[in-house]
Design brief:
The complex is a heterotrimer of chains A (about 220), B (about 600) and C (about 270). Chain A has about 220 residues and is mainly alpha-helical. Chain A has a single domain, classed as Up-down Bundle (Four Helix Bundle (Hemerythrin (Met), subunit A)). Chain A is built from five helices and no strands. By secondary structure, chain B is mostly helical. Chain B has helices spanning about 20-25, 30-60, 70, 85-120, 125-145, 180-205, 220-250, 275-310, 315-330, 345-360, 360-375, 385-405, 410-415, 420-450, 455-480, 500-530, 590, 595-604, and strands spanning about 5-10, 265, 265-270, 560, 570-575, 575-580. Chain B has a two-stranded antiparallel ribbon. A two-stranded antiparallel ribbon of chain B has the order 2-3. Chain B is globular. Chain C has five helices and ten strands; from the N terminus they run αααββαββββββββα. Chain C has helices spanning about 1-20, 35-65, 80-115, 170, 255-265; strands at about 120-130, 130-135, 175, 180, 185-195, 200, 205-210, 215-220, 225-230, 245-250. In chain C, a hairpin with a 4-residue loop joins β6 and β7 (about 205-210). Chain C is elongated. Chain C starts with a helix and ends with a helix. The chains are: A mainly alpha (about 220), B mainly alpha (about 600), C alpha+beta (about 270). Chains in contact: A-B, A-C, B-C.
């Protein structure tokens, strides 16, 4: 055992500053401070990990559906209500509006001209269309139930409701996140990482919905 | 031990919080770690008590156990256990031990306390989420326990809850009504908590490391917790949907897992077309990684403790890390080996047996690296290192018996016998618990500021080590003689000659349980009366020892340590010490060597 | 303490091996035509794994015994070969295991699961239910009648749900609570469960196969020794799981024919 392995080496700084700036900011920090891009963002890492988890849960549901479809010959097709297409459009619009809100806000911050008002307007639009999507989904369930496509009569129906409801629950969580950044953005008290994390989550909800929708068209 | 120059001054945060926020709804990862530990401790003694009742019932079936009818009037009329109540206890023993002990103690409890300390962080990445994880886990435990008190008792379908037995409701037997529903809900809640916890661990490891703490400089225990959190992220993400589907089958009469035409209790069931094997696939996709969720943190803790006892780094730091990563990956492609005789496609069985045997390679690399590192070391046999060595012995025994079960053809004979019970109890139960014991004896001074009694600790170790072999080795012999598991009584003719083995096991289990009481006494006594612990009693190198015992609320007194080197600098000659801490910029000896002193100055 | 540790580990290791070496609790005697393959594989695995077990425990004991807290004056030595040796041994050990046992094991598995049953194998259906087995022989027409779950009625002894009025094939089916089979003749056993999962396990036959609800499976085997053996359930199936068993009676062909005739006349 030689001495060489204990020679003090230069402490490297992986992925940006790793010292105190990595710690969660305290309450009295000014909002502008958090917009420094070099600090690592636990919020972003956290949201990526969360998205991986959600993706895995839907993968589990999907594989369950595929196995169940092959298990016996009671898989029936559902005529999907046209409203689902409209809902899809609404959710995509909501995502675009959120992206515009995010860019406007961050751009304003960068140039020292907080254009929060326009950003908040886009965000409001995004939030409202998110709510509209949820309402639309509820209407879809209601339409289907009226057509007596109930939960238990076939595995197709069961999986249809499981997938859409489980997705809607996550969308509802996303709406909670949007409300949170809406409040913070109005106060101009929004951290870049919070904004980005919420945006990633919301965009993922759209991607996830498109995945589910394609699955519904293709398999259901 | 601390070098002021190595620390950067920071304003200590002002904390004026009440008792409730400090000790109950605390966001401090250390308090949360202790809460998890306390929950696991309660759970492990409950689980052990259940195993006592089961063992006593097996060998003295008509022996009244005083007070048992208070626990369940229907399950134990006249204090004598009914077969169905035996199955309830079996289910609860498995569920409590797997979820609330083996997942919580090595991972959530010790990981929560020491992962942020070992990477020099002030707290977890999301402290409030951390608090939420614990309280959700606590809720899951309460829901599970409440099934003891519903009218027909806890479920009887085992911790694996195979559908359709678990999915058709009370028609399938007592406990399959409300009890099984509570079970499914409890496990679903537990999944949510574990997912949140794993997310927090990953974000903390990736983003909260102090300056200089590269990934390869993280101690092996931190690596193990990190890898485990990655595993549990995907494992529990599958179990949660599985539990949801089970709940729907039970409550909404859907047919995910229940096929058509089942006649249970002379009644045709309303379900149709479900797949019983679907449950097994989904459950074991979670269930096999779960084994590694239990064993990997223990392996990491044992590496950490063992290195400290050996006073030398392991033969290779990277070999351990890569082996653990490999085990993590492989754990996702072996689930089918639980289903060799369950009607799965026989070709799949051969396909699944291949990675199952391959996974032995990283496990053997781990074992041989530990073993080889003991050679020529300066071993200090503290209780902690004894448990670490005991872990290696158990890991070898339990791992090797897995070789039999990994081969589909041998599994035809051994499947669902006591051989399997012996195998997983040694490798997953005893080994993981030995890891927790090693961690407890090692870190107790850091957690409480007091030392545990080493004498009692040794008695505890010898009792547990010999006791575990006396209990679980005979399980293998029983299995080879064809003794089937999960039987409330052995009425079969060919099992009758094996009763003497069962009696031996029961007596060993009772003695082993008493030995665990010594641990409990030691823990409680030392908590109040143990000698005060210095900051670094074991002369360890990692960051958790670079702060006071117990650490202040913000871990490092408002100063983030800076890391200068790999985690295990033992076996060096440094100013009368044989170790250099990770946050020591240089040591006295090197100051006299010109180029080293220069290098050190350049650091400042 | 080092000595005590080494001694106890060695004693525990030897103590664990003794009952296996001395066959204190041996495997059930093999009465099947193909079970010896499993037994051979078990034996060779036991040799390889058993010696690895003893070797690892002895090394652990020896290394602990030899290492000591010698203080800082004595240098730490590393084992010759270091981690490369560890990796090499791991790969070699597992590789040998895979090669040696994999081939052998595949053969044992293939005979059980990939071979098609003999054309003149005798077909019997086994039905598992909470907590009993029933066996059905096709009768003179060689055909098993269709089952109708809604017709199952234990009170009427209609355990399989046969439609005796309309189904001709079902009328001569012989139902028995014990599995009687002729010796040295291959049996093709159809496994069907009426409720939850069960299992068909006869240690002496080296056969274990789950009954999976909604999935009818088949095993085939040939018993080579006359005698009475137990069929036990190994898949947790509810409160009476431990009491769920039936007898397997292996008889000479002539005796079996008489038995079947007598059973048929009883129904």
């Amino acid at each position: 055992m030689s001495l060489s392995h204990v020679i003090p080496s230069k402490p490297p700084l992986p992925r940006g500053q790793r010292d105190n700036s990595a710690l969660p900011p305290t309450r009295d920090d000014k909002p502008g401070k958090h917009l420094d891009a070099s600090a690592p963002e636990p919020a972003l890492t956290g949201i990526w990990v969360a998205l991986a988890t959600i993706a895995m849960m839907f993968a589990a549901f999907t594989s369950a559906a595929v196995v169940r479809q092959g298990a016996s010959n009671d898989w029936e097709h559902i005529a999907l209500p046209a409203l689902l297409y409209i809902n899809t459009g609404i959710l995509i619009l909501s995502g675009i509006a959120l992206e515009l809100a995010r860019r406007t806000y961050l751009n304003g911050v960068k140039h020292g001209m907080p254009s929060a008002k326009i950003a908040v307007r886009w965000l409001t639009f995004s939030l409202l269309s998110g709510v509209a999507f949820l309402v639309g989904q509820i209407v879809v369930w209601w339409q289907l139930l009226a057509r007596s496509v109930d939960f238990i009569s076939s595995p197709t129906n069961s999986f249809f409701y499981v997938l859409t409801v489980f997705h809607a629950v996550h969308v509802a969580g996303g709406i909670g996140g949007l409300v949170r950044i809406w409040v913070k953005m109005r106060r101009f008290d929004l951290k870049r990482s919070t904004l980005n994390a919420t945006c990633w989550y919301w965009h993922f909800m759209s991607v996830l919905w498109i995945y589910i929708f394609v699955l519904l068209i293709w398999k259901f | 031990m601390q070098h002021e120059s190595a620390l950067e001054a920071r304003e200590p945060p002002v904390r004026a919080i009440g008792f409730v926020r400090r000790y109950i709804f605390s966001v401090d990862h250390k308090v949360i770690g202790l809460q998890y530990y306390a929950l696991a401790l309660v759970a492990v003694f409950v689980g052990m008590a259940l195993s006592w009742l089961m063992r006593i019932h097996l060998v003295w079936p008509n022996w009244p156990i005083p007070g048992l009818h208070f626990l369940s009037k229907t399950g134990a009329p006249g204090n004598v256990m009914t077969p169905e109540y035996y199955l309830s206890l079996l289910t609860m023993h498995g569920t409590i031990m797997v979820f609330f002990v083996l997942t919580n103690a090595p991972f959530a409890a010790l990981g929560n306390y020491f992962l942020p300390l070992q990477i020099g962080a002030e707290d977890m990445a999301f402290p409030r989420l951390n608090m939420l994880s614990f309280w959700i886990t606590f809720l899951a435990f309460c829901v599970l326990m409440s099934s003891f008190f519903v009218s027909d008792g806890p479920p009887i379908s085992g911790w694996t809850a195979y559908a359709p037995l678990s999915a058709v409701g009370s028609a399938a037997g007592p406990g399959q009504g409300m009890g099984q529903t509570l079970w499914a809900i409890s496990i679903g809640i537990f999944c949510v908590a574990s997912l949140l916890g794993a997310l927090n661990f990953i974000a903390t490891t990736l983003d909260m490391r102090t300056r200089g703490m590269t990934l390869m400089r993280m101690p092996l225990s931190t690596w193990a917790w990190f890898i485990t959190s990655c595993i549990s992220l995907f494992a529990f993400a599958v179990l949660l949907p599985t539990c949801i589907l089970l709940c729907l089958d039970r409550m909404a009469d859907t047919s995910f897992f229940v096929p058509s035409g089942l006649v249970i209790s002379d009644r045709l069931q309303p379900h149709s077309g479900g797949s019983a094997l679907l449950w097994q696939h989904l459950f074991w996709f979670f269930g096999h990684p779960e084994v590694y969720i239990a064993i990997l943190p223990a392996a990491g803790i044992v590496s950490h403790v063992l290195i400290n006892g050996l006073r030398r780094p392991l033969l290779s730091h990277k070999a351990i890390i890569f082996s653990m990563v490999a085990i993590g990956f492989l754990s996702y492609v072996v689930w089918g080996h639980h289903m060799f005789v369950s009607g799965m496609n026989p070709t799949s069985s051969l396909v699944f047996s291949f990675p199952t045997i391959i996974i032995t390679i990283p496990a053997a690399v781990l074992t041989l690296t530990w073993l080889g590192s003991i050679y020529g070391s300066r071993l200090r046999l503290t209780t902690a290192s004894l448990f670490a060595l005991g872990f290696i012995s158990m890991f070898v025994s339990g791992g090797l018996s897995g070789f039999f079960l990994a081969q589909p053809s041998i599994d035809i004979y051994l499947h669902a016998t006591y051989f399997v019970v012996g195998h997983f109890h040694i490798v997953m139960g005893v080994a993981a618990i030995f890891g927790v014991f090693a961690g407890t004896y090692f870190w107790f001074p850091k957690m409480t500021g007091r030392m545990l009694n080493e004498g009692l600790g040794r008695i505890h170790f010898w009792g547990s080590f010999v006791g575990a072999y006396c209990i679980f080795m005979p399980f293998h012999y029983l299995g080879m003689a064809g003794n089937v598991r999960r039987y409330a009584a052995f009425v079969d003719d060919y099992m009758a000659p094996l009763m003497s083995v069962h009696r031996f096991i029961t007596i060993a289990a009772l003695v082993m349980g008493i030995v665990q009481m010594i641990f409990l006494v030691n823990l409680l006594y030392s908590l109040w009366r143990g000698p005060k612990a210095p900051d670094n009693p074991w002369e360890c190198t990692s960051l958790e020892w670079a702060t006071s015992s117990p650490p202040p609320a913000d871990n490092f007194g408002g100063r983030s340590p800076i890391v200068y080197r790999d985690p295990y600098q033992y076996g060096v000659d440094a100013a009368g010490k044989d170790f250099v801490m990770q946050n020591e910029p240089f040591y006295a000896e090197s100051a006299s060597i010109p180029h080293l002193a220069e290098a050190a100055e350049a650091q400042e | 303490m080092r000595k005590a540790f080494a001694l106890i580990v060695v004693l525990v290791a030897i103590g664990s091996a003794v009952p296996v070496i001395l066959h204190w609790w041996p495997m059930a005697p093999d009465i099947s035509a193909d079970g010896h393959l499993i037994d051979q594989q078990m034996a060779s695995t036991m040799v390889e794994v058993g010696s690895a077990f003893l070797l690892a425990q002895f090394l652990l004991a020896y290394f602990v015994y030899r290492s000591a807290d010698r203080g800082t004056h004595e240098n730490i030595r590393s084992i010759p070969g270091g981690v490369k040796l560890a990796v090499f041994v791991a790969v070699a050990f597992v590789g040998a295991e895979l090669l040696a046992l994999g081939m052998q094991g595949q053969r044992a598995w293939a005979i059980q699961y990939f071979s098609t049953p003999d054309p003149n194998a005798m077909t019997i259906q086994a039905q598992a239910g909470q907590f009993a087995y029933y066996f059905r022989y096709p009768g003179l027409d060689g055909k098993l009648g269709a089952t109708h779950p809604e017709k199952i009625n234990e009170g009427d002894q209609n355990f399989f749900g046969l439609d005796l009025e309309k189904d001709v094939a079902a009328r001569d089916d012989v139902v028995s609570a014990e599995l009687a089979i002729p010796v040295n003749r291959q049996i093709r056993l159809l496994l069907h469960t009426k409720d939850v999962g069960h299992s068909f396990y006869v240690p002496e036959l080296r056969v274990q196969q789950d009954f999976v609800p909604g999935l009818d499976l088949m095993v085939h085997f040939t018993a080579t020794k006359v005698g009475k053996y137990e069929i036990v359930c190994t898949q947790l199936c509810g409160m009476g799981h431990h009491s769920m068993r039936a007898y397997l009676r292996v008889m000479p062909q002539a005796e079996f024919d008489d038995w079947l005739k007598q059973k048929a006349s009883e129904q």
